[in-house]
Amino acid sequence: MSKEYKRYLITSALPYANGPVHIGHLAGVYVPSDIYTRYLRLKGHDVISVCGSDEHGVPITIKARKEGITPQDVVDRYHAIIKDAFARLGMSFDIYSRTSSPTHRVTASDFFRKLYDEGKFIEQTSEQFYDEEAKQFLADRYIVGTCPRCQAEGAYGDQCEKCGSTLSPDELINPKSKLSGSVPVKRPTKHWYLPLDQYDSFLREWILEGHKEWKSNVYGQCKSWLDTGLQPRAVSRDLDWGIPVPVEGEEGKVLYVWFDAPIGYISATKDLTPDWEKYWKDEDTKMVHFIGKDNIVFHCIVFPSMLKAHGDYILPENVPANEFLNLEGDKISTSKNWAVWLHEYLDEFPGKEDVLRYVLCANAPETKDNDFTWKDFQARNNNELVAILGNFVNRALVLTKKYYAGVVPACGELTDYDKETIAELAGIKAQLESNIENYRFREALKDAMNFARIGNKYLADTEPWKVVKSDPERVKTILNIALQITANITIAIEPFMPFSAAKILGMLNLEKFGWDNLGSMSLVAEGHTIGEATLLFEKIEDDVIEAQLKRLADIKAANAAAAAAEHVTEQKEECTFDDFQKMDIRVSTILEAEKIAKTKKLLKLTVDTGIDKRTIVSGIAEHFTPEELVGRQVLVLVNLAPREMKGVTSQGMILMAEDASGKLELLAPEHKTNNGAIVG
Q: Is 0.70 surpassed by the pTM of this model?
């Protein structure tokens, strides 16, 4: 039998304050966290939800240096953007804190110091990369070079973003400092390490034996880490941005961000309530961490080991991590702007907060990576939210207004079909609860929507708009039941779509219900007057979606151009002026153009070179139509040796340049020039 808890502590992964929040973060962490929190509150539980900005670490210093501002400027900017966007989406955190707060600085320092004083750390001196020009040790992200796995340039000291390989700085080929561009040297430096290997037995018993109910993706990753063998992990870094290591004489060293950040949950709770200890130190508290899969090791291996080493804190009861959400078939990348940013979405789709929450939950990457597409977003809005949920609520309210002036009619004698419908509705509750409590939010959302699906079927089958002419009393019962279903919907969907639930309650002219009321058929009293019916959702048209797809296409093209600029083809072998003089390049005009039969790429062109009219075969049919070429001036290498192609003799070559996307561009004089003019 599962344990009954007196209170709940819900933590959501601290978003990193070097950029805004995107849909991948929402689908993986924040929407599931809010669903669970809202559900617990509806049930009347004592629950607090904490989150905040993670504001230390190397990427923030890199961004600050790049923009010529301070790291504090960076985190202040993004903390404000993230906090505001979360509020606008309806995230119901009890506190949204930050790791640059005074409370956090003290809490993290005290945590480190307790473990330090009790001898829980290993002190080690190791050789690490040092930039002699910048006069500082280099964190992994400050070192770039050639990837040893895929040979890609610009791989970081901790990861190659092209092939995804995890790396160490020592593995990079031709490593360079990102600060100065110089070749770094090795210098000795002292750091403190948490000996994770000493917690192996504890972790195996706690996770592998004690938490077999965890999601398969979480349990599997934990087992893999444990089976591979845990190693001591550094808890400090040579850096000037972060919480200073609280050890005298150790200036220039800060707490490593992975050690510092999870303590942010504790400091946020401290800022929220003076009773923070009962949420962190009482075994009657259930703590649940909502995170993405890249944070599993920190929340299931590292942080629990830290809490165990400290000795005063409870451990998480569950860590329902999700996998990654892709965007239009490609991995979301903040550095490449390949993302749908929450704050931008809220600006561009006002009043559609719940549409995003719905789509991200319906398509959540719960046990495997999933894909967000704008076409799916449109389809789910139009075919599910508008056609099912919105349609039912609107019909129930409009018909009540039409037939009874908005006054709730009495429920008369129930037919067998009425009883079957009510029984079907009552049966949803247990399943919905089970799915939420076991973190199966996609299935839970289907359960919640089933209230509207059943409601639609009920109205379609009973046809009150026809029956009203022959049996008006029967219609009173039908609409009473329809309104009871509508009221039930407000409870069922509130964790998922809080704005829509509130809107329906406003239309019903009712106050919010508790979870215990779900399934009741007496939520709306006879004689109660409902409010005005308005549309819950509106169709999203094709042009809106096409605009989003065009934006992504433009981003992809810009990324390709940037990549091409970084990887320009190396200079060819040196040639002399005399070599160049051998090439006779002339301004020419295309007179005729036609496709060569049975080929995809070849065009037959007739050009006026100024010295003659000749035929040139060019492989440009995939880039230009014959019609758009006629009359265009181009540059032609006229003394190229003739070559036969598909039975046509080609006498020359038209000069082209290839852009970042692979599209060919004609090279031509800026202004009209005489045919035959020599280039050089």
A: yes
